[in-house]
Amino acid sequence: MKEGPDIARIASLVGDPARANMLTALMDGGALTASELALEAGVSLPTASSHLAKLMDGKLLTVASQGRHRYYALAGTEVANMIEAISGVAAHSGPRRARPGPRDKSMREARVCYDHLAGDHAVAMFDRFVAEKIIVRDDEEIRLGPAGQGFFAAIGIDTSGLGNSRRPMCRACLDWSVRRSHLAGSLGTAILDKILTEKWARRPSGSRVVEFTPPGRKAFETLFLA
Amino acid sequence: MKEGPDIARIASLVGDPARANMLTALMDGGALTASELALEAGVSLPTASSHLAKLMDGKLLTVASQGRHRYYALAGTEVANMIEAISGVAAHSGPRRARPGPRDKSMREARVCYDHLAGDHAVAMFDRFVAEKIIVRDDEEIRLGPAGQGFFAAIGIDTSGLGNSRRPMCRACLDWSVRRSHLAGSLGTAILDKILTEKWARRPSGSRVVEFTPPGRKAFETLFLA
DNA sequence: AGAATGCTTCGACTACCATCGAACCATGGA
DNA sequence: TCCATGGTTCGATGGTAGTCGAAGCATTCT
What we know:
The structure is a homodimer.
Chain A: H1 7-14, H2 17-25, E1 32-33, H3 34-41, H4 45-57, E2 61-66, E3 69-74, H5 77-93, H6 103-109, E4 111-113, E5 116-118, H7 120-131, E6 135-138, E7 141-144, H8 148-154, E8 171-174, E9 181-184, H9 185-197, E10 201-202, E11 211-212, H10 214-225
Antiparallel strand pairs in A: 1-3, 2-3, 4-5, 6-7, 8-9, 10-11
Chain A binds a DNA duplex through α4.
C-alpha cells in the first residue's frame, strides 16, 4: 500500500483552490510577485505567503529575489506538464468555461514591470541595444557600452546622473511572456519615464498594461528599434 | 481569476492519502472491489465507500456491478496519465525513500502503466524507435515514422488496424522513474499484449511489476533493442 | 536617518472533511 | 423464507488546514 513516490502530498498541494489559481497563473512560464499571486488567487497577502511557502516546500515553485520583490515561477516543465495533465482530466469532469480576454494580449505586448517596461517591445529594445553596443553583456553583468552615453544623451537621458546611487543603472530582468531578458535598473526606469512623459503611451489604472498611442508607437520604434 | 477547468477539485481528490492509494492500486489497469480497495488504502469499509463515491463523482473511476460485487477501475488512460505525471513530480520532491527496496527496483525496470509498458525497458525501447525512425517526434506530437509500418508488420502487429479509433496510436507518456518518455497509445497497448501473449513476461498478481523470463528478456532485447 | 513598500511570521478562529460504529439496503445461496 | 456477505448511508467526533489581522523583517527611496 505504500509504494512509489508520495503522490498525495503533491496532489493535495495543487488541491487547494488558492494554490491552484496561483499555479495556473504561472502556467505561461512567467514569474509573478507574491502580491500579484495573492490578487490572482483572491486571498490576502499572509494567506498567499503561507501557500507559497508550502509550494516551495514541495518544490513546485522556484523563487528569485529581485530587490524587495520575490518572483515566483514554476519549478520546471515537469510541473507544468503535471498541471496540464490534471487540467485534461478536469476538463472532462466539469464544464469548462472559456474566456479568451483581450487583456492578456496587450499584457504580452507592453506592460510595466515594477518600474520599467516589459513585454515584446521591451525585449526587442533590449536586443537592439545589445546589437548596437549601446549596452554590453559581460557575464551576468550588463553595463553601458561604448555607444551608450551618446545615444541616450541624444534623446535627453543623462546617463551620468544615473550612476551615483547604490542602485545599478543597468540590470537584466527576465521577461515572463517572452522568456528573455529586458532592461531594468535606473536606466530602465528613465526610459519608461520618457515614454510616459512624452505621452507615447498611457497606463489604464489598476493594470500593468502599457497602451501605446499610434504616433507614440511610431516614435518608440524609430527611436529604439530602428 | 477563475478560469479554465477546475483543477483544484480534481487534484484534491487525488490529494487524500487513502484515495491516492486506491488510485495507485488501480494503475495496473485492473478492477478491484470496494473491500479490496479499503484494505489497500488502509481504511474501514465505510470510509472507503465514501471515498469511492467522491472519485466516481469526479469521474476518475468507473464501476461495474457483477453480482453483489462492485468492481472499480480507472476511468481511462487520461486519468492514468495524470497519476503518472503527478508521480513524476513527487519522485523529485518527496523524501526519496531511503533505499530503493527490491520491489522498487523491479518496478523501475519494467511495470505496467495502465495499459502499456513503462520503466527502463520501455524508455530504452522508445529511444531505439526514435533512432531507427520507426516513430518520429514532431513538435509535441509523435507519429509512426517511415520505417514503422514495416517493422511492426514483421513482428505481427498490424498498425493499419490501430489508427481507426479516436484514440491516438502513438502518444508519449512521461516515465516517473526515469525522466524520459515512453510509448503509450494503442500501439503501446499492442506491444504490451505481444509481450504477454508470447509469454516473454508474466505479471505477479496485485502488482504493476512486469517480470521478464530469461528467454523472454532475450527475445525482447533482440526484437526491440537490437 | 526616516518613511514607504513588499513580504513573512505569529496567533487565534473557523470550517471542512476524513474517520469509524451502527444501522440500513441488496444480492445470492440454503 | 431466513441467513450470510458485500456495500452504502447516517450521525457524531476529532484533527487538520485555510483564513485573516497585527506585528515583525528586509529592502529601497527620499
